[in-house]
From TrEMBL:
This is VIT family protein. One of its GO terms (biological process) is intracellular manganese ion homeostasis. Keywords: Membrane, Transmembrane, Transmembrane helix. It is found in: Endomembrane system. It comes from Verrucosispora sioxanthis. InterPro entries: Ccc1_fam. It is a multi-pass membrane protein. It comes from the Bacteria. Pfam families: VIT1. Its main location: membrane. The chain crosses the membrane at residues 152-175, 181-202, 214-237. GO terms for molecular function: manganese ion transmembrane transporter activity.
Length: 238
């Protein structure tokens, strides 16, 4: 059976420009690690299960809002910066079209294209202002002005995925359990599953991606547990 070349298939690459995958992954992982570490810290201090639930819920709400606002501001600011650079490039193309065409040709020559061919292509592009603008922005800034991430999509995906991730280690307490070890185990399982799912987008082995996230989360939980236990002991002595 012959395989269809990737270049002939309509969609052979994942969409890396939509602005939702990075904040979704970051939000889910951050939600898991943040609340696992938070629960481990206060649990290590010897507080009651009710206090752990209150602390974890507050961490979920505050973290989800913070992540959403941060993602929106970050993506919006980046888009505005790109828009300003695109406007600057548009003005240069209007004022100095010959110099800009030569600049474009020089960049292609530096990449190995014959000089006469680079000049011909740059001159052909110059006759179409919008295409010329897009080409210059891509070559000089390394971005496509028509494919910028949506700040609202980034904020929403970050908010939802952080909330889901942060909820996982709280589930045993919400269902009536009182064991810190069980909550941390459920959180660890969530980290492993999340890492395995992310590996689908990166061609990483699922068990390797899951194990990496589990180890990172475990390191954070151990650190905060020890700090919580130390402060709890000191507080008891006081």
């Amino acid at each position: 059976m012959t395989e269809t070349p990737a270049a002939l298939r309509e969609h052979h690459h994942a969409d890396v420009s939509g602005g939702w995958l990075r904040p979704a992954v970051f939000g889910a992982m951050d939600g898991l690690v943040t609340n696992i570490a938070l629960i481990a810290g206060v649990g290590g201090g010897g507080v009651s299960p009710r206090t752990i639930v209150l602390t974890g819920t507050a961490g979920l709400v505050a973290g989800a809002i913070s992540m959403a606002l941060g993602e929106y501001t970050s993506v919006r600011s980046a888009n505005e910066q790109i828009a300003a650079e695109v406007a600057k490039e548009r003005r240069e193309l209007e004022r100095h079209p010959e110099a800009e065409a030569r600049e474009l040709a020089d960049m292609w020559v530096a990449r190995g294209l014959p000089e006469h061919l680079a000049i011909q292509v740059a001159e052909a592009v110059r006759r179409h202002p919008e295409q010329a603008l897009r080409m210059h922005v891509q070559e000089e800034l390394g971005v496509n002005p028509d494919e910028q991430p949506n700040p609202w999509a980034a904020a929403l995906s970050s908010f939802l995925c952080f909330s889901v991730g942060a909820l996982v280690p709280l589930l045993p307490y919400l269902f009536g359990a009182t064991s810190l070890a069980l909550a941390l185990a459920v959180g660890g399982l969530g980290l492993f599953v999340a890492g395995a799912i992310v590996s689908r987008f990166t061609n990483r082995r699922w068990w390797s991606g899951g194990l990496r996230q589990l180890l990172l989360g475990a390191a954070a939980a151990v650190a905060t547990y020890l700090i919580g236990a130390l402060i709890g002991v000191q507080g008891g002595l006081g």
